[in-house]
Design goal:
With about 575 residues, this protein is an all-alpha fold. The protein is about 15% helix and about 0% strand.
């Protein structure tokens, strides 16, 4: 037991003796107080101490925060001086606090004192002035009766067991932060600070029981037989590498993942590498010396593709496996031409150099125009008309684009496709007016209404003359140019009198269509002007016989004498036919 521990034990025993003596004294006084209390008169219900005027002390009032407090809060009828008060703070009711006079803490100012220990005991404290939280370590029974060490405190086993507090808490100044091993013992093993990873205070500086090196680095094979100093020279543990290259460095041209090929369980760096995991050795590769691909033992950066060692061939081709296999020696090809371009028809008999000049396979075209170029004015889809059997005969069907009927079927191709330019054709888009123009004016662009592809002069028998003109059977059988000499139907038509001048049955108007329809002369559409007292429609003679008023069918004049006395009609009337 240390000297400090012995001193604390002695102080604790002395304090216990004093406390027990004080309690005994207090107990011996209580019978006398009860005796004095027996002479106190009975206090009426509802009365207060200050209502008794015969006792001057009863009217005393404390100052400050204790003024106007009821006397019985602290005093009793037993004795004014024997104050019986229980503090809310338990430590003020213990040990010497329960025996000392009230005035030691409560002065005449009436101010409630600070309940912190250092407010009374700071001058007697052996600690620096900055240490004020006494209750954190001490109890109210005695300074030497300290509280148990907190569970969060650093272990006090082993070498820490017999240490005084002052050994770590210099000058009784408590630590301002949690302490670790390095705060007292410093940093060791090249910079390690977490001593508890390997040491236990109960075992002094001996390593922990059951220390497992595998928690940091598993010791297997040659590592298990190696002296500690090989990896930890001068007892240095901080910064010890945990990777192969950390101790052995990178090898084979820069490789760092040693475990890919080696294992510490296999001595003398014997490899455990499966070459097929990186590159399968087959055919000629299986018989090739390692130095051919790994000169000077260099394995990092070794190519794993054919072109990496053999370079690109055939005009830039890099995927050698498409045609060659390492299982076939001397670069014998194993290529199926149909996988890239089927050789059919005349292609099957061509020399390879026709398409692959100078052994260049990388840029060989796979479409017709790649070798034959665009033809027929720019057409590139050769297969739509030709096959590999030959350019002739062509398989093109004109009807898939434009049906050739009538006169079109006998035309030479060059009429629409000069110089065999089939990409475009004269007359596109495929409407009659593209080749034949608008023969009858811009308002008559639908040639198929009247004509067929047989010939233009052959007009369909089903043609109906546009309204309002309706053709009778006689006119329908005649040629259009009799009335439309220019065949531009918007132009003025030939007057009727051009053909009918000798057969006009009346004298006067020559604008036949004003009164007659072209179906027949008798199909009249003329509406006579109204004449007073005459009915020009129905059974009235004047409505059916025009000669009554127009003798000799001369519609340029009229007379009323056929029905009226000559000279009896004096009003004038001019026929609408008068020119």
């Amino acid at each position: 037991m240390s000297q400090a521990t012995k001193t604390r034990a002695a102080i604790f025993v002395l304090a216990a003796i004093i406390i027990l003596a004080a309690i005994g004294v207090a107990a011996s006084l209580r019978p006398q107080e009860q005796a004095r209390a027996a002479g106190h008169p009975q206090v009426p219900a509802g009365s207060t101490c200050d209502s008794c005027k015969t006792a001057p002390l009863h009217t005393y009032q404390h100052a400050g925060e204790y003024a106007n407090l009821a006397c019985d809060r602290c005093h009793s009828t037993s004795s004014w001086t024997n104050v019986d008060y229980t503090h809310r703070e338990a430590f003020l009711n213990e040990s010497f606090h329960a025996l000392i006079a009230c005035a030691r803490c409560h002065d005449s100012s009436g101010k409630v004192p600070d309940k912190a220990c250092e407010s009374c005991h700071l001058k007697r404290s052996p600690h620096p002035a900055s240490v004020k939280n006494c209750s954190a370590c001490h109890t109210a029974i005695a300074w030497s009766a300290r509280k148990p060490i907190p569970q969060t405190h650093l272990s006090l086993l082993g070498g820490h067991l017999n240490l005084d507090c002052e050994a770590c808490h210099t000058g009784f100044a408590g630590p301002t932060r949690p302490r670790g091993c390095v705060d007292c013992h410093g940093v060791h093993h090249g910079g390690l600070t977490k001593c508890e990873d390997c040491h236990d205070p109960a075992r002094m500086w001996q390593p922990k029981e059951g220390f497992d090196h595998a928690a940091f680095f598993a010791l297997k094979g040659t590592h298990a037989d190696t002296q500690c100093a090989k990896c930890h020279p001068s007892g240095r543990f901080a910064g010890t590498p945990s990777t192969c290259v950390g101790c052995h460095g990178d090898k084979h041209g820069g490789l760092t993942d040693c475990s890919r090929c080696h294992s510490p369980e296999r001595y003398s760096w014997q490899p455990s590498f499966d070459h097929a995991a990186k590159f399968r050795l087959e055919g000629a590769h299986a018989k090739t010396q390692c130095a051919k691909c790994h000169p000077s033992g260099r394995f990092a950066g070794t190519p794993s593709t054919c072109v990496g060692c053999h370079g690109d061939k055939h005009g830039g081709l890099t995927d050698c496996s498409r045609c060659h296999s390492p299982k076939r020696y001397s670069w014998q090809p194993s290529f199926d031409h149909a996988a890239k371009f089927p050789l059919t028809g005349k292609h099957a008999y061509l020399d390879c150099r026709k398409c692959h000049a100078s052994g260049s396979f990388g840029a060989a075209p796979t479409v017709c125009v790649g070798c034959h170029g665009p033809q027929h004015g720019g057409l590139t889809e050769c297969a739509s008309c030709h096959t590999t059997a030959g350019f002739k005969p062509a398989t093109f069907k004109h009807s898939s684009v434009f049906v050739l009927t009538g006169a079109h079927a006998t035309l030479a191709c060059s009429k629409c496709h000069p110089s065999n330019a089939y990409a475009t054709a004269i007359g596109q888009p495929y409407v009659c007016s593209s080749c034949h123009a608008l023969r009858h004016g811009p308002d008559y662009a639908r040639c198929g209404v009247c004509h067929t592809t047989t010939a233009f002069v052959s007009v369909k028998s089903t043609v109906v003359h546009p309204e309002p003109i309706q053709l009778g059977d006689t006119h329908r059988a005649m040629r259009c140019n009799l009335c439309h000499p220019t065949l531009i139907f918007e132009d003025p038509t030939t007057p009727c009198v051009t053909c009918h001048a000798t057969t006009v049955p009346h004298v006067g108007p020559s604008d036949c269509l004003r009164c007659h329809m072209p179906t027949t002369w008798d199909d009249i559409r003329f509406v006579h002007p109204s004449i007073s007292a005459h009915v020009l429609e129905g059974p009235d003679p004047a409505a059916s016989d025009c000669t009554l008023c127009h003798p000799g069918r001369d519609f340029t004049t009229y007379t009323c004498d056929a029905c009226h006395a000559p000279g009896s009609v004096t009003f004038g009337f001019a026929s609408r036919h008068t020119r």
